[in-house]
């Protein structure tokens, strides 16, 4: 019997990421910063559903607070894939948003990566993982990592990726009640931009830091307060440009206990590391 054509892809995961460390090692001529970072994928995130449209339109069918449909990275990802492939199909895209926005968890980038991977399958456009990662970089610096699909040591603006093999781990992620704009942190005069490069083998927590953390804590005391609270239980650090902070803990139980203690208006979640992107099998 013939396989029926795909018309719908239900509940495709868009996992969160943590930056286990983040060093700013330089600046490009266009103002973008050169980084070194370790990306870790988490088994917690948004979820997207894609339905085929015959008329070529790409629509978001759910509201995302503060993000107009046209600017949504999922809509932009769909249009970019159409342009790159010449595909005439369209899609309705529903987002079940769970990741706090502007949280340093890469939610927008992960939604975009999941869209590129899922529509490449739904539309049968057949782009390779490398081609999708290149397209994704036009949408956000973290998109190539999600398409790479596994923990990674990253350089450049985050697009030069090498696989990292890390032991499985449990994390507590805490969101302070504040939104930290990425651009403001990178623009800050006081940002350290000359951290010496390290080798992939040297990134144990003791020798690394997040260079964006001091700037974010200075301008947004809520971030510092979240680190201080979480540090009672385990060494805590900011992810990306904030606002979220995280700590590795010994077990799911320990994570659950800490989450239950988290005082409002901070919010906390437990999450486990994820070795492979759940949609990895749809690539290559
Ligand atoms: C901090 C990280 O989350 C680390 O994973 C990412 O590098 C941020 O990537 P992102 O959210 O995709 O950031 P974008 O939305 O592209 O950047 C927002 C703004 O931050 C500044 N920016 C961003 C990334 C970078 N490597 N250097 C920069 O200077 C730029 O002014 C840019 O206009
Ligand atoms: N689908 C989307 N989900 C979240 N944000 C989106 C989306 N589409 C566009 N955006 C825009 O992207 C911005 C950054 O969102 P995102 O959640 O990726 O930030 P972040 O978690 O701080 O990521 P990073 O770790 O890359 O700094 C949002 O403030 C929003 O304006």
From TrEMBL:
Keyword set, alphabetical order: ATP-binding, Isoprene biosynthesis, Kinase, Nucleotide-binding, Transferase
Top-rank taxon, per record: Bacteria
Occurrences of domain GHMP kinase N-terminal (ranges): 73-150
Catalytic machinery residues: 17, 142
Keyword Transferase: yes
GHMP kinase C-terminal domain: residues covered: 211-266
Class of the enzyme per the UniProt entry, highest EC level: transferase
Keyword field contains Transferase: yes
GO molecular function, one term: ATP binding
Catalytic activity: 4-CDP-2-C-methyl-D-erythritol + ATP = 4-CDP-2-C-methyl-D-erythritol 2-phosphate + ADP + H(+)
Sequence positions that bind ATP: 100-110
GO biological process, one term: terpenoid biosynthetic process
Pathway info: Isoprenoid biosynthesis; isopentenyl diphosphate biosynthesis via DXP pathway; isopentenyl diphosphate from 1-deoxy-D-xylulose 5-phosphate: step 3/6
E.C. designation(s): 2.7.1.148
Family: Belongs to the GHMP kinase family. IspE subfamily.
PANTHER family: 4-DIPHOSPHOCYTIDYL-2-C-METHYL-D-ERYTHRITOL KINASE, CHLOROPLASTIC
Annotated function: Catalyzes the phosphorylation of the position 2 hydroxy group of 4-diphosphocytidyl-2C-methyl-D-erythritol.
The protein's name in its UniProt record: 4-diphosphocytidyl-2-C-methyl-D-erythritol kinase
Gene this protein is translated from: ispE
